[in-house]
Amino acid sequence: MPTFALLTHRSPDDILAWRDGQAITVRQFLGDVRHLAAALPAGKHMLNACTDRYHFTVGLGAALLSQKISLLPPTHTPEMMRQMQAVAPDVFCLSDTFHEVGLPGFVYQEAFAQGPVDVDPDAACEIPHLPGDQPVADVFTSGSTGVPLPHRKTWGALAQGARAEALRLGLSLGEGRPYSIVGTVPPQHMFGFESTVLLPLQSGAAIHAGHPFYPADIVSAIRAVTRPRLLVTTPVHLRVLMSADAELPALDLLLSATAPLEPQLAQTCESRFAAPLFEIYGSTETGQIASRRSAQTREWELFPDVSLTPRGDRIWAGGGHVTQAMPMHDVLELIDERRFLLHGRLGDLINIAGKRNSLAYLNHQLTSIPGVLDGAFFMPDDSGHGAVMRLMAFAVAPGLSAAALQAALKERIDPVFLPRPLVLLESLPRNSTGKLPREALQALARQHQAPAGGGTGHHAG
Fold this sequence. Notes:
Elements: E1 3-5, E2 15-19, E3 22-25, H1 26-39, E4 45-48, H2 53-65, E5 69-72, H3 78-87, E6 92-95, E7 105-107, H4 108-111, H5 121-124, E8 129-131, E9 135-142, E10 148-154, H6 155-169, E11 180-183, H7 190-201, E12 206-208, H8 215-223, E13 229-233, H9 235-243, E14 253-256, H10 263-273, E15 277-283, E16 287-293, E17 300-302, E18 307-311, E19 314-319, E20 322-327, E21 330-334, E22 339-345, E23 349-352, E24 355-358, H11 359-367, E25 374-378, E26 392-396, H12 402-410, E27 422-424, H13 438-448, E28 457-459
Parallel strand pairs: 2-12, 4-5, 4-6, 5-9, 6-7, 11-12, 11-13, 13-14, 14-15, 26-27, 27-28
Antiparallel strand pairs: 1-8, 2-3, 9-10, 15-16, 16-17, 17-22, 18-19, 19-20, 21-22, 23-24, 25-26
């Protein structure tokens, strides 16, 4: 079994991370990893809840050295934690802030409270090489029953996926100066894990330790690191960033995922930052498998060695770092062996009065209306006893009325897909990766459900 290095930086004095404006070298990182590995509890499974991206990465390295498996669930709700304990009774939580999750805990800072341990300087700078088949993490998707389903990730698959991403984006070693990578997505999410932790480790880049959310924080984080600079983010963050009255610092590359990006927004971002914007496509099960330059094309190009194969009524991904063939949960149109179009999620397809559409397409039309900052359509599970299926929609559009939005939608979509009601809100309940959980939309739907024969829309604070 081949081995893969924990990191690919060339010198112990290379910058591995930026934290609070200070550079952290490979030498310090490897020392911190070995120090934490020696201090961790005995459990085989570790929930890495560190909010500081550098702490998270040290925790990942320490878990790898001590052969622990990192659990990366989608949420930290009490019910999810109970399910984690059912999956792994020996699980403990590594955190760097007060984090009450109902699991045995270990605080990151306590491992370093006594100061650095004495480590042989030569050994401290030796980069660990780990077996490709070593289990690294269980990432979770929620099945139709709502029970989290673990997907085991090995070090070889993760390292190869990150290297394929680096090659696609031009971040590979030898292709110029190492990048500094700023991320608005948490490292516990698959996209954040791959593109803000594994990508820098496998491309010689530097991690920004923060987790900026608001436009001013994102701007400050970008300014705090050296060029060339890559921003890893989501369509939601980009939309808010473009609408904010902020002087944008120089970027050299942008990377977006978690939801399809409208071409107009991609073009605006490229223009404002004077930098190319790429989108990553993938899933929790497969990891990242394709990319596109969103301002220039709708077509996705697969990563090297990855293939898509029709099998029955589904498209399956395999090859390259996708070690086991996996069915995709999206509607994909294959153009040739390397390229495809994405038409939305299988679960997003709706049929009203014999007409078919996708929620992704409807969301795109809503958020493309000038003045709409955010928006989402929603199809309730049950429209009542024999009732006509009724779509709802929620929008953030300061200064616009629901009637004005309905009029704009009439010019863009078939009347059968017009939402009843269309609710104006100050914000949508998106999670830390910019996604709208179905449970959050269901709660909004119950709150704003139109009575029988209800009107076209209303406003809610």
